[in-house]
Structure formats: C-alpha cells, structure tokens
Amino acid sequence: MSTKIKILPVKCGDAFVLTHKDLKGKFRNIIIDGGFMKSYPKVKKQVEIIKKNKQQIDLWILTHLDADHINGAVQYLREEQTGDNGRLIGRFWFNFFDTFKLNDDSPFLSFGKGFDLRKYLQKFKIKGRQDIINILKPIKFGDAELTILSPDQTTFDELKQKWKIEFKRYIGGDPPEYVSDPSVKDAQTIEKLAAIKDAREDRGEHGLINRSSIAFLYEEDDKRLLMLGDSYPSVVLEAIRGGYSKEKPLKVKYMKLSHHGSRKNYHTDLLNVVQCRRFIISSNGDNQYSIPDKEVLAKILMHPNRDKKKKIIFYFSHDDLRFRNLFAVDKYAETRFNFECKFPKSNKVLKIKL
C-alpha cells in the first residue's frame, strides 16, 4: 500500500495528483484543483497518463472558486464534449448550488467559472457532492481515508447565500501590468520576518472565497497528508482541535501550505497543534501577489515548538531564480536553521512519496 503525490508546476496555482495503490494492487487517482487556463496542458498530460494506464480519475476535488484552482478543470470538461464525455471521472467534489443561474456575459468570473463547471458536470452526469463541509465523517479511499477540515457549516451557508450574487474576485488571463516586487520582503532576514505579528483573517465578503475552500486530511495507515487549499487556519484549527492539542499534536508527513504560502492564510497556532516538517509550496516566484511570502517560511523555521534537530524540507512546484535566492540574505541559512529546499528537475513534475 502506498501513495505518490505529483506537485504540478502550474505557476501561482494549485494542481496535484495523488495516486494510491491499495493492498490488492489496485490504483486509485485523486486530482486536486486544476490550475489556471494557461497551465492546463500540465493537467491534461497527467490525465492522459491516467487514461494510458487504463485507470480512472476516481475523485476530482476543486477546493474553491478561484481561477487559479478551477480553470484547468473547466477547460478539461470543455474538451470532453468531443472526447469521452467525462467518463474518466468517477466523482467530483465541488461546493456549488443548483438554485442560481449566472448570465454568460457576467464580468464576475470567480463565481462565473463555478457555474460554467456545474453545467458540464450536469451534462456529463458525473457523480459528485456539493456539501463538502467538516461535519462529514471520514471518507474511505481504497485503504486510505479522507477527513474534511474546511469549510465549516457557517461559512458554507454564507457561501450558499453569496452564490446568488455576482462576485467581484477573479484571477486569470493576462496578469495586470503591475507586478509587485517581492525583493524588498525577501531581503529581510528570517529572524526579522518571523517576529512579525500574524496577519488577521479577512472575515468579510472579500475573503469568503478562500474561507470556503475545501481542506482535508488524507490518511494511509500511520502516514498523513494535510491539503489546505486556500483555507483559513482558524477553520482548520477548529476542525482538528477536537482530537488534537499542543500536548497531543496531529502528526502529518506533508502539509500543502494554504494559498500558495500566503501570510494571510497562515497562523503560528497551526503548528502548535499540527506537527510537520515537510511543506509543499504550489506557486511560481514571479506572480502579481509575491506569494509565497518568505515570512511564512521564516515562521515555520523559527516556530517555538520546532525540534531543531530535525530537518525541515520545503517542496516547490517550480524552480526559478526568486526561489533559489529566497534566503540569499541569510548567510548559511540552510545550515543554521537546518532546512532544505527541493525543486523539480528541468521540465519535470516534482514527485514525492507518502
């Protein structure tokens, strides 16, 4: 029994493929998100590999509505109109609602893409769930198990109401002319960044899309993978504190950092309850939001509960100049703070084993 994780290089987006081999030798595949439209070929290649191996996409999870997570899946289903009509997909998880229709010319495309996707799921009669919230019982996946941590019922109900409003957030297409320069923050030392007060979560309408993101715990025997999507740490913490604490932490082998390593989706309290030393960062270095924030990595390295004798590993979906120089100002950083950065080989997908 084993699970392999592919971290696809989809710029500042999310796209992952989990392949689980059960004790009987059967392979099961989960695709998580789909990246931007422009990075869709990366996702398509993985779908073709699954098809070539005569396997199925047993589950496709779209964590939330943002274009950097959803557009690749929309493009796949568009192409399936002249393909196998979605028969490769077993189930789809995506929080959508049947009661509202959006005009095709709506400029509010974060929600718009959601409605577009819903249309294809219904057309191809793909089985799915639209109530993915953290009150669900753990779900079996072969010999592994998924536990939903986010969103909570309150946020889900709020999303359901806001689904009726043409929302204003959309990332995709050509980037804005102005691209923020991360060099100022990257030039600050690990110690200085770690001392910055944690960001406050956006509890208003602007933060609803990320706050409603699906996050889950994947378990195979005693090995665990924490996939956080773009979720809020407060929601995840509330979900896991029922069984875990600072004295009895949730031990996970890998954690995919929320929102591409954004400081707005990280809180020090998370690592008070979750014990992990391998972190996945799904982003390129050159994006208009300058994420991941070096501050998040600094806080992980300097966390008071950290066992400094054990090496921390950061897994990057992209290999670029910014990431290679991220700790340039911190002399002998990898030795002093006992960590390592791993990157994909040229034109390759980074693969790790659970």
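That was protein one. Protein two is written in the same sequence-then-structure order:
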Amino acid sequence: MTYKTIVIDDGPKIKKLALAIEQCANEYTAKGYKLVTFSITHANKAILLFQVPEALQEKSDDLEGIADCGKVDVQ
C-alpha cells in the first residue's frame, strides 16, 4: 500500500481553507484515491494524506511533487 501527502497553501480564512480541502478531497477521490486523514497547520495550510490506488502505484511520476489542488484566493 502506498500513501501520498497533499499540501494546500491557503490564507487565514478557515471557511475558504475548508472549501479548498473539500475540493482537493473530491478531486482526488474522483481519481480513485482515498482520503486517510488531514491536518491544519498554524500557518493556515492543510496537509492531506491519501491512499494511492493500486492501479497508480506503478506510475512513479504520479507520486512525486506537491499537488496544487484546492488553492483558493483568500483576499
């Protein structure tokens, strides 16, 4: 079993951060990932941990980098 962490960089507005988490979770669920857990940092960023579908575990390119899903303009 493989896991992938997703970091969402967002502003101080918690409602918008919650929306960004929801959007990212929905996006990755549609790709077959399973959201395992998430954490919100003191810097108003969220770290999402997804279980990678077995079909994608062979594709190492998909497991690298930081996703930019869920970025929301907070101004």
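The first helix runs from residue 14 to 30. Keep this in mind for the problem set.
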